[in-house]
Design goal:
alpha/beta; four-stranded antiparallel β-sheet; 12 helices; 21% strand
């Protein structure tokens, strides 16, 4: 069995809303399973509108949140195994890039301080001279240089420039995985494609895989190898990026794509699904059934299992779009059998 770079198996995260006595539980991430292999670097985009659980999943991968259920493994090591966890080694293997680069750097410190600290404190460079050479090379790979960055504060850079420096900081460790949470959301539209282009180049140059969290479908289409669509904390569709976005098989993915018809557009606040209540996250049958025009009785009674459609595609739906009538009839028959039991 080939060892995976990252394995996410049945992971869930539950938050309590309100007080201890009268509060309610919200399952922000619900039984999510994803994986990234080691054979070649890939960019896996996790897409969905605001509140779907993307950032919560991202924070669990980065060990900022502890899962309430399921397991996460990095290079075969379970996150919950305290004996196998080495904080320094984890930082060498996994690096984050956050949404707002100005929040990643203190306004009181020069930006190059962070770069030198990363190289020296993690033992990547033995001395400042060696660190300087490494930082210079890394900055050049993201279109910057130490001469431009040295002795300057975050406010002296544009958002796009500072995000490039964030990427360089992540690359100093030569990580195996970079988790980028909405990395172009706070950047001027003219710079977005420059950043995602950079991800594609660095994937091959550094042999590093990316998890790209986004609600910008235009950049996801361009940069991704694979896409996972989240709805109310659950992965409802997964597969090769072009297949997913050119021919969605889940009604929700289809709706998202139809809502973003123009290149560069993203889902505005007005597109966020109405009635964002905890009861929708608590649904035990198909979470999308109350809003789905294709929903049948079985969709509103039991939760579908993830179906393998072939060619690396999976969908959490009883009646995938584009399926043949025989496929739908067989799905209906199987579900009737389950309901009768």
């Amino acid at each position: 069995m080939t060892e995976k770079l990252l394995e996410i198996n049945g992971v869930s995260k539950v938050f309590r809303i309100g007080g201890m006595l009268m509060g309610k539980k919200l399952t922000a991430v619900d039984d999510v399973s994803l994986e990234i292999g080691r054979d070649k670097p890939v960019i896996l985009s996790i897409v969905g509108e605001s509140g779907c659980g993307k950032t919560t999943l991202c924070k669990m991968i980065l060990r900022m949140y502890k899962p309430d259920g399921g397991t996460i493994r990095l290079l075969g090591n379970d996150y919950a195994d305290k004996k196998a966890y080495n904080p320094t080694q984890f930082r060498l293997h996994v690096q984050p890039i956050f949404q707002n680069p100005y929040e990643s750097f203190s306004a009181r410190k020069t930006v190059d301080t962070y770069l030198f600290n990363t190289a020296l404190r993690l033992g990547i460079a033995e001395n400042r001279s060696e660190a300087k050479k490494l930082i210079e090379q890394t900055l050049q790979n993201v279109g910057m240089s130490l001469a431009i960055v040295q002795d300057k504060y975050p406010t002296q850079f544009s958002g796009g420039e500072l995000q490039r420096i964030s990427i360089a900081r992540a690359l100093i460790t030569q990580p195996k995985l970079i988790v980028a949470d909405e990395p172009v959301a706070a950047i001027d539209a003219s710079m977005k494609m420059n950043i995602v282009n950079l991800f594609r180049e660095l994937k091959e140059k550094y042999n590093v895989s990316f998890i790209y969290i986004t609600h910008d479908l235009s950049t996801a289409y361009y940069v991704s190898d694979y896409i996972a669509t989240l709805y109310r904390g659950a992965v409802i569709e997964y597969g090769p990026a072009r297949m997913i976005l050119d021919n969605p098989r889940h009604p929700y993915t289809e709706m998202l794509i139809n809502a973003v018809p123009r290149v560069g557009d993203k889902w505005s606040e007005s597109f966020v699904m109405p009635d964002m209540e905890e009861k929708e996250y608590a649904i035990t049958h198909c979470k999308f059934a109350p809003r789905c025009r294709y929903a049948t009785k079985q969709c509103k009674q039991t939760r579908p299992e993830m179906r393998d459609l072939g060619e690396g595609r999976k969908v959490l739906c009883y009646h995938p779009l584009g399926g043949s009538s025989s496929e739908l009839q067989e799905a209906d028959r199987m579900e009737r059998v389950k309901l009768e039991r």
